[in-house]
Amino acid sequence: MAETADMAPARSTARSANGAAPTRRRATARAKADDLEAQVQQLQNDIRSITHTLGRMGELSVDQVKSTARSKAQQIAQRGQSAVEDAQDEFTQLEKQIKDTIREKPLTAVAGAVALGFVLAVITR
Question: Of 9, 26, 56, 102, which has the maximum CB count within 10 A?
């Protein structure tokens, strides 16, 4: 029996060592889980920050595009107005030339008007 008693303390020591291993594993698992949660929280914060930054960049880009579009629209409007004024000047000069030609050669102008009327009448039938 002495052998049995000597062995019994050895077994209890082995059991306590085995019992400590799962506790250490659980503590390590908790530490890893806590670390993982902290990393996930950091990633969420980073994503929020990136989203906020992209939103601001988008707003700035929209403002820049609007500003560029307004300036281009003003330039186009100015060019259009200039083209209209040039066309009006051309038509005014053409009208003056036609009036001068009619005053100088009234019979030719009447003959031209009659010919134009005849051509339009033939086309519209």
Answer: 102
Residue 5 DSSP symbol:
H
Q: Which amino acid is at 29?
A: A
Give this prediction's pTM.
Answer: 0.43
- Residue 108's contacts (CB-CB under 8 Å, 6 or more residues apart) are 101
Residue 90 burial (CB count, 10 A) = 10
pLDDT tens-digit map of 106-123: 998 889 999 999 999 999
Cα torsion 92, 95, 99, 100 to 10°: value is 70
Q: What is the DSSP string of 34-54?
A: HHHHHHHHHHHHHHHHHHHHH
Count of all residues that appear for the chain in the document = 125
Between CA 69 and CA 76 the distance in angstroms is 10
Residues 104 and 125: their CA atoms lie apart, in Å, by 34
